[in-house]
Amino acid sequence: MTNKKAHTVIVGGGFGGLFTALDVAGTGDVTIISDEDHFLFSPMLYEYFSGEVEKWHIAPNHEELLDESVNFIQDQVTDIDLDSRTVGLKNHPERLSYDVLVVAPGGVTNYAGVPGAEEFSIPFRKIAHADTLRLRMVDALDHVAPDLPPQDTQRALTFAVVGAGASGVELSTKMADLLRDAFKRRALHGEPRVLVIEMGDRILPGMGGEIREYVEEALRELHVEVHTLTRVVRVTEKSLTFEHNGEQTEIETAAVVWAGGVRMNPLVENLKVEKTNRGLILVKPTLQVLSHDNVFALGDIAFFKDATPTLAGTAQLALQEARLLARNIKAFLSGDELRTEHFEELGEAVSLGTERAAILVGGKAFGGTLARQARFALYTSRLPTWHHRLRVGASWFFDGTAPRPLLPLGIQR
Ligand SMILES: Cc1cc2nc3c(=O)[nH]c(=O)nc-3n(C[C@H](O)[C@H](O)[C@H](O)COP(=O)(O)OP(=O)(O)OC[C@H]3O[C@@H](n4cnc5c(N)ncnc54)[C@H](O)[C@@H]3O)c2cc1C
Questions:
Q1: Residues 161, 175: contact at Cβ < 8 Å?
Q2: Are strands 122-123 and 70-74 parallel, antiparallel or unpaired?
Q3: Is 351 a pocket residue for ligand 1 (Cβ < 6 Å)?
Q4: pLDDT digits (tens, 9 = 90+) for 281-316
Q5: 12 lines ligand 1 (CB under 6 A)
Q6: Which atom of ligand 1 is nearest to the CA of 126?
C-alpha cells in the first residue's frame, strides 16, 4: 500500500524533474523545486528566439502544469545533505526534509576556461538568453545605416556561434535567416556574416551521416561559415579571437553565442556519491543512486548504462527516464519490486533556419518545409500535459508559426 505520508522532493523542473512530478503526482506528498518559474522545452528555444513560437508555448509555468497535489517551490537548491535527508534552499531559511529525493538539476554552460567567454558571450540555454541575443541583434542592426558600404555593414553585423553541435547549427541557421530578412526590410547593402567555430573536425559529431547532408546543404545555402579544427582563444566585448593551424585571427563581432558544451552542475559536483570520471552520478538500472536507495538521479547529470550512447545528455533520455523513475518511486513507497528499461533513440530532428528542418525517423532522413511541419507535430506530442499540448497545437494550427522579423527596436511587435 502506498505510504501517503512519504515526502518526495524533486530538485529541478526540467525534462527529468517535471515529467517525474507529473507522473508521481498523488503518491504521498510531492514537492518540486526549481530556480525558474517555468518548464522549458529546450528543443524549441531556437523557434522562440526567431519568434516562430511564443513563450507560453514552450515555457509554460510550473503552476499551470502541476495540479494541487504537487507543491512547487521556486528557489535554488544550495546543497543536499544525504545523512540528515534534507536540502538547503537559497531563499528559505528552513531546510526541507525528504523521504525520497530526485536529483535532476541538469547541466550548465561549459566555457572551458576561455578568457572572456563567460563575461562577454551569450549562453543559449534559457528563455532569457534567447531574449538577450535577439535584442543584441536588433541593436546591432539599428546601428547600421542603409548607406553604409557592404564591407562596413558586414563588419558591424558579424555574429559568431561557438560549437557546431546541434545547438550551434540550429541557432546559426535561424540567425542567418532572420538577418537576411532584416537586410531586405531595412534595405542594407551586402550581407551579414554568421560564423560557427568548432574545435573538432566536423559538425554534429553525435549525429548520423543521413541528416548531416541536409544540414551541410542548409549551412551552405544560408552562407553560414563553418570553421572546423578551430579553437576560440579569447572573447572580448566586441571581438573574438580564434586559432587554426597555429595561426590566430581576431574578428570584430556584434555578438558571440556560446553553444560550446555542457559541464556538471555545481550542486552535483558537491554531492558525495559515486560518479563517473566525467562527474556524472552513477545510477543503478532502477535509477537509484548507489548506496542511497531513497535517492534517484536522472537526466543530464546521471549516467544510466542501458541507453543507446547517442542519447547521453538529451531530453529524449530524460523524458524516458522520468517515466520509469515515477513508476519506481511508487514501487519503492509501496514495497514493490523496482524495474528497469532499455532506452532507445526516438529519432532526430533539427531545425535549419526558419523555413525548413531535417528529420531522421526509423533510419530514414528527410528535409525541407515538410520536415519543419513534421518537427512541429512531433514536438507538440512531446510537450507536457495533454491540456497544454491541445492549447499549443491549436495555436500553431490556427495562428501559424511564422517568424517574427528583427524590426527596429521602436517598432518591435
Ligand atoms: C538550446 C537547447 C536545445 C536542445 N535541444 C535538444 C533536442 O533537440 N533534443 C534533445 O533530446 N535534447 C535537446 N537538448 C538537451 C536537453 O534540453 C537536455 O538533455 C534536457 O533538458 C535534460 O533534462 P534535465 O532534466 O536533466 O535538465 P534540464 O531540462 O536542464 O532541467 C534542469 C532544471 O533544473 C533547474 N536547476 C538547475 N540547478 C538548480 C538548483 N540548484 N536548484 C533548483 N533548480 C535548479 C534548471 O533551471 C532547470 O529548470 C537541448 C538543450 C538546449 C540547451
A1: yes
A2: unpaired
A3: no
A4: 999 999 999 999 999 999 999 999 988 888 889 999
A5: yes
A6: 53
How much distance in Å is there from the Cα of 213 to the middle of ligand 1? 27
Q: How far is the CA of 356 from the centre of ligand 1 (A)?
A: 24
* CB-CB contact of 96 with 31 (8 Å): yes
Q: Are 392 and 57 in contact (CB under 8 A)?
A: yes
- Per the listing, cell 555593414 goes with 153
Taking alpha carbons only, the member of 10, 129, 3, 42 closest to residue 384 is: 42
Q: What is the phi/psi pair of residue 166, to 5°?
A: -55, -40
Closest alpha carbon to 194 in 229, 167, 154, 245: 154
pLDDT at 250 over 80: yes
Contacts of 379 (CB under 8 A, 6+ apart): 41, 43, 44, 349
What is the value of pTM for the model shown? 0.96
**Quick one: angle between helices 386-399 and 369-382, nearest 10?**
150
Dist. CA 173–CA 393, nearest whole Å? 25
CB neighbours of 115 closer than 8 A, spacing ≥ 6? 233, 234, 235
The atom of ligand 1 lying closest to the CA of 317 is 11
Closest CA to 255 of 127, 143, 149: 143
Alpha-carbon span 151 to 129, nearest angstrom:
29
Q: For the chain, how long is the longest CA-to-CA vector?
A: 75
